[in-house]
Structure formats: C-alpha cells, structure tokens
Amino acid sequence: MRLRPFLCSILLLFAAVPAGASATAWTGLGGGPGRSGHDAFDHGATTNVVGSWSQTATAEQDVVVGPVVSDGIFSAQRVVYGTDLDAVHVQMLSTGMEVGPQAGTGIDTGGLDTDTFGAGDAVISPVIASSPSAPGQVYALHNDDNQGGANDIALAQIDLATGALVQDLPVPNTDGYEVQSSPVFTEPDAGGDASLLFVASDGVTPRLFRLDISDVRTSAATFALTASSTPVQANPQASPTLVYLRDSAGIPTLYVAVGTSGIHFLETYAVSDFSAGPHATALGAIGQTPSVPLTSDGVLPGAPGSGMDTSPWIYLAAQESVSGRVHRLEQFGNSDTLDVVSSPFIDGVPAPALAVSKRVGHDPAEGIVAYTTDADLYVLNTGDLSVGAEYSPSAAGPPADFGRTTAALSDELVFAMLADGTQKVLRATDAGEVSLAEFTENPANTASTFAKGQPALAGGRVIFASDLGAFAYSTRDSLPPRVGNLRPASVLGGALLEADAVDARGIREVQFRIDGVPVRTAVNPVSGLSFTPGGGHFVHGWDASGTAPGPHIFEARAVDNGGQSSVARSTIFVQPHTFADTDPPQTAIVAGPRGRTSDTTPRFRFDSSEQPEAFECSLDDRRFRSCPSRYEVALVAGHHELRVRAVDAAGNVDPTPSVRSFRVIAPGPVEVTATRPVQLNRRGRAPVPVTCHSRRRCRGVLVLDVIVPRAKPGSLRAVAARKGRKLRLGRSRFSVAPHTRRPVLVKVATTRRRLLRRHDRLKALATVSLNTPAGVETSTWRLTLTSNDG
C-alpha cells in the first residue's frame, strides 16, 4: 500500500496519489542551479537554527557543486556533492557520516580536470534516482577528456547504499563538447526507465542531449547506446527544467525548458522528439534556469497525482546588458507564445537560478521569489514581481557579493551563501539577517573563500557547502508530525492496523491503541512516496479475539525524531467472533468499459460486501491472481473478459465472480507511422518512428523486413533465392514512454545496406512484438525505406 500525501492543514486531509508520482528529478531543494529551491516542511522556525554536523576533512573540502539530497525516509537519506578532486561524496543526512570511501568516489579518468563539474562559475550537480524504500542511485554527469575515443562527456553512476562506483561511461556524440549546468531526470515510469536531459556546447553551438536509462533506481541500470541531440540557442550555464504545457493541438505534453538567447529568452522542446514547443520572447535577453513551482503535495503540475493538466506558472531570471529582470510566464490555451509579466530592471548580473516559495494555484500572488545577483539579494512578490525587500551584504561590512550562488527558501526563511562562502539566514519578510541568537555560522567555515550552487533543504536540515567542506544545521522542530488515514473501520478476529504518518525529521514510531491501551507499535513504514517528508504508511497486525464485540476507540500516536507527537482517532467496530465466518463476500465491478472501447489501457474499480477487502482477477480465462481495487491493464485489440472475485478477512472467496465482457476496437497500444520514407542513416541504422498510445511504457521488439524485388542477375539473385521476396534487415528492442513518439533505431547489416543502395527505395514491413499483461501482441506496419545515398 502506498502513502497518501496530504495537504498540510488543521483537518489533515489525505489525498490518494497514483503510482509513479514521485520527485526523483527535483534537485531544487539543493543543487546547482536549483529548479524550485523551496521546501515548506518544518523549516519555518525563526529561532534555533543550530549546528548539526560538519565534514571538513581535506578530501571533503573544495566543494564545487551545490549539495543534493536523496528522497525517502529521513534516517536513510543521503547528501551528495562533488569536489575539485573529481570525487563524489555520499554522506548520511542525519549524521554526516560518509557512505563509501572517506575520500569520496573518484569519477574522472586520468589527472585532475579543472572542468570536471563545470568551468569557472558553472556548476554540474548530480541528480538522484531514489525511492522511499531504497537509497537508489546517483548520476554524476561530468566532463572527462580522458575517457578515450571521440567523446568528452561521461556519466558516472554511484550506488547510494554503498557509495561504490557502478559504472562510468562516455556519452556518445559529445566529441568536443563541454557541459556546464546540471542535468534533469524525467520521472521514472512504472518499469523504472527514465531519461536524462542536459545542454552542452562545443563553443559554437549548444545542443540539447537526451540519454535514456533503464532500471534507473538500481545498480543494474543500463544506458541507451546513443544520445539524441538538437541545436538550441541555450545558455550553457542554465540548467534545463521539465514542464507540462499544451502543444499546438491542445494536448498536455512534457517539455524540457531551457533559458536561451536571441529572439527568445526561453524555449521548450518536447521530451519525446525534441520538437519545438511554446517560447517566451525578449530580444537581447539571456534566460537563466526556469523554475516551476510544485503543488502542495510536492508534485510537478501535469504529472500523475498533481490534479492538474499543465503548469500554470514558470519563473526565470534573464540578463539584459549589465542588469536583469525576473519574469513570470503563462500559457493561455495552446498558444506557442508564453505571456510574460516582468519585474523592474534590477542592477547586477543574475545568478543561474531562482528560488520560488509559491505553490501552484489560480492566484500567482501567493509567495515570494528569492533572486540573487552578483551583488545583492532581492525578495520579490510572485504576483506583480515588485521588489519587497533587498539585502546588500556590503552594507553591513566589507565589500561582498553573492557571485553566482542561488538562495533556497522555506516559508519564512531565506538560506544563502555569499561568493566567499559566508553562510546567511535571512527573514523572508524583510530580507534582514536573523539575530546571532537565532543563527551563528559554524566557526569552521569562517575562513572560507568561495562557494557555488545552492544550499540543500531536507529533513529539517540546511546543508551549506564551500571550499572548507559541508555544514549542516537543524531548524527548530516547530511542527508535530502529521498522522491520519486510520483503517480498518471493522475487524473480525484479526486485522492489520494501518495509519499514514509523516514529518520533516522522520517518524520514530507509530503506536496503535484501542480504547487508550497500547496494543502494537510500528517503527518502520512499509511504503511511502518520495516527495513527502520522512515517514509513510505504517502497518502492524492485531489479534482482536480478546476484545469485546462492538465499537471501540482506535488511536494512532505518531512520534517524530524530534520527540514531538500527534494523535489521530477513529472508531473501529469489532464484529462478533464467537462463530467462525463462513459467509463469502459479494463482488461488484463498479467502473470500467462495457461493450466497445477504444481505450487500450482501460481502468476498472471493484467493490465488495465486506471490509477489509482483497480481490483476485482473471483476464481472458487465465488463472486468478491478486489485484488492487483500482485495476489497470494494457490490452490488444479484440474481445476480452475480466472476472473478479473478493476475498474476505476470514479467507472466504466469492464463488460467483463478477464478470465484465468488452471489445477493444483501437489498433493497439503501439503504432508505427512513417508518412515519409525512412532513410537509412550513414551509420547503417534505420530510425523507425514508434508511437506509444498506452498509459504505460510500451516495451517489445521491432523487426524490420524488406520486400526484395524479383531476382536480378549477379549477387542479388543469390540473396533472393535464399530469402525469397522477404529479407530480414534487423531487429531491435525498444522502450517508448507513454503517449510519446520516438524513433527506434534498427541496425542494418552491411550486405543489406548494399541491397538498399542498389535499389535506392524499397517497401518494408515493421513487425512489432509488444509485451502486454494480456500476452504478446504482434502487429505489422508497412513503410518505405531509402538509402542515405538516394
């Protein structure tokens, strides 16, 4: 069972969220540059921002990227950062203890490179793919001229559980290229596949690259063989950001947004095929990193579980000559030009990113923007972008500035570092420094000389990093844990007591009580969602045979790691248990397609006459298997029958399953559409366009056959005689994201290429064998194939 994220309110409203809605990609709570820079959970205290730990060993100094923090349970979260010794450090968020080698994990081949994590003021922070149940993996994109071959950018993978280097592989097609800004991950799909996107430049033309990675959260991850790329007028020091906008047909689409220069200062490209999307225009402006505010539950608007189709707002800074402005961008309908609301001109060169505290909604004036320049820090209103407060570090002492560092925000505090590494905690209301009684900089950092990136916020911690190491502070535990969603409501004999509990500092335990008497204590959540604070879904078994039948008070008392507690109550009804339960439950399919449907991934919902409930499903006369009450399945075209039966707490099975028969009339989850001839590229690969119509990732095998003309004299006669009129060109495994179109590259052998060059243009058959829960679907599509010499 999954943790249901909640709205932080007095009523403790919990809302269910579909699978796959996590925040793996969001290094915005630390990193360089950030993409949101805001963490609202339990960082609002204006007193007692006190030292927690510091790591200042020689190998841990000279941090040249902003620290990032993994998702998951507080006690298992990791802090990750890179140093100018070309090493990646993995440390425990709770204690600062190093995971893996004390000197970090080296990722650069050969001697030390000055541009491993970016040149000059540029920053390439790692990205993390983790989950509530496992630390996951860190991916460190870096420059490495010593990898060998014709590639100058590499991607290192490090196992967060051990700190060990899993692999460090060159990124194809990056000869002569340098990356300066942080990459971004797409959300891993149900199969664990994701794409890594970044901008790199050869000094003349910046390009947008995409690497597809399978099993991204595991040490068994594999990289795609090729990297897609497209020329963009990107600012190489501005990180790309993911955003859902509407395409020209009005369909919500996942785009990667990049700050650019030229006639636009922001451009977007569809993640699936890099086709151009909506843009923002301002001649002469240089866009920085876009910032997309998240929902109250920490989800990217438009992603599963967000309750929204697209992102209503995008914020970014743009440099214009020696000054800059902050812009708020909005798409109306499916316009390809984003509407722009701008702040006044502000002196100074803007930092690569903003921190935005607002949450998405209908009113843009809900929060603040923390905007740093090479001189001062400004607090702007998110509505009209007027300047509400300014902090000038030189006003209170010797000349100082923020350089290229980026602030981070809680609801009430601004965390920032000066370019010389000095750590600052400011009030969001007036940008004034908090008192020395509220925050004192770690004395081990007072001699620092430089800092980069953005502070990290997670688990009630604030992590700064400079050339003297990493420094963590704890904010005062001002909020008790949130607990709710108690169940079951009725029990017979025995049951699982369940509750959801979350807190920024993690949950120490959840104690279950009946009528005020403790009966069970759970110390570890069984599941959770990665964008929530520490905690999750807590479960413990209970034998109710000694409890009198009737209503009882059911309580769950959650205690966080700071010692604060909260209690939620409900009523649980203990059914009479003097007689064994032999009555089977009744089952009903209450939602799902009937008759004919064009949906190849239909959704069903079940109900039963008893609680708690469990279900078993049989699709197309297969054996019954356990299935959830909300059931989704990918199907091929044709007639299908779903049978569902409920199983009650006593193990009684409904002998008369509920049956739903229907016919799928759609062509299938996968479609091969080539309106123009597919041209064999000069590397001998045929890019066959495959579209996935399913709500789940489409995986399978694509086989390309060519229809050979009648035999002619010479070597062709032997080929035709051996193979007849149908000749196998090649096959390729593919994985296409839901509702996207991408080319599947099929490698063609040299002898087959000669055949194609001889005829210039041939008819071909693309046969797709798609793996679905209902079996293997095979479909064949016709297309035309040409050689690259035609």
Provide a quick synopsis of the model.
The chain has two helices and 60 strands. With 790 residues, the chain is mostly beta strands. Strands 12, 13, 14, 15, 16 and 17 form a six-stranded antiparallel β-sheet that branches. Strands 22, 23, 24, 25 and 26 form a five-stranded antiparallel β-sheet that branches. A five-stranded mixed β-sheet has the order 38-44-43-40-41, with no helix packed on it.
Q: What order do the helices and strands come in, and which of them pair?
A:
Layout lengths: L5 E2 L5 E2 L35 E6 L12 E2 L8 E5 L4 E6 L12 E2 L20 E5 L2 E10 L9 E7 L5 E6 L7 E2 L4 E2 L8 E8 L4 E9 L7 E2 L4 E4 L9 E6 L5 E8 L4 E7 L5 E6 L4 E2 L26 E7 L2 E8 L8 E4 L3 E2 L7 E2 L11 E5 L4 E5 L5 E5 L16 E2 L3 E5 L5 E5 L28 E3 L2 E6 L2 E6 L7 E6 L2 E2 L2 E10 L3 E8 L2 E6 L11 E10 L6 E11 L4 E10 L12 E5 L3 E3 L5 E6 L5 E6 L5 E3 L2 E3 L5 E10 L10 E7 L5 E3 L5 E2 L5 E8 L5 E10 L7 H9 L2 E11 L3 E8 L2 H10 L1 E12 L2 E12 L4
Please describe what this structure looks like.
The chain is mostly beta strands and 790 residues long. It contains two helices and 60 strands. The strands form 15 sheets. Strands 12, 13, 14, 15, 16 and 17 form a six-stranded antiparallel β-sheet that branches. Strands 22, 23, 24, 25 and 26 form a five-stranded antiparallel β-sheet that branches. The longest helix is centred in the C-terminal third of the chain and has 10 residues, at 750-759.
Largest sheet: 6 strands, antiparallel
Rg of Cα set: 28 Å
Helix content: under 10%
Number of helices: 2
Structural class by sheet pairing and helices: mainly beta
Distance between the termini: 57 Å
Mean pLDDT: 81
Number of strands: 60
Instruction: Give the overall shape.
Output: globular
Percent strand equals 35-45%
Residue stretches low in confidence (pLDDT < 50, at least 5 long) are 1-34, 712-724
